[in-house]
Amino acid sequence: MNISKQEQRTLHALAQGGRIEHRKDDRGGIVEIDCLNRDGWRLDDCTLAIFQKLRRRRFVASREGGPYRITRDGLRAVRAQLDNR
To answer: What residues does each domain of the chain span?
Structure first.
């Protein structure tokens, strides 16, 4: 499956326990997102366009209005990376 570098980086952060918090406008559409890793740091590579691609492919999902988290399909799509801390 073809996944861009930014999508891969976002999925990797989500696979390690991160989340995508969203803000909606009056009509209910998502207008702003923040991708946070498990430590609470913001990921700059995650833009609204990247988020919409991941959501369209069903790699991320929200439950009961909460933050978006990675799905099983997203976990299968992410490639292994070393965590250089």
So the answer is: 5-77
In whole angstroms, how far apart are CA 66 and each of 26, 78, 82? 18, 22, 29
Burial of 42 (0-12, 13-18, 19+ CB in 10 A): exposed
Is-contact 79 1, C-beta < 8 A?
A: no
CA 11, distance to chain mean position in Å, is 6
Q: pLDDT for 19-53, tens place per residue? A: 999 999 999 999 999 999 999 999 998 999 999 99
| Model pTM score | 0.86
Calpha distance 55→70 (Å, rounded) = 10
Per DSSP, the residues of 54-84 read: HHHTTSEEESTT--EEE-HHHHHHPPP----
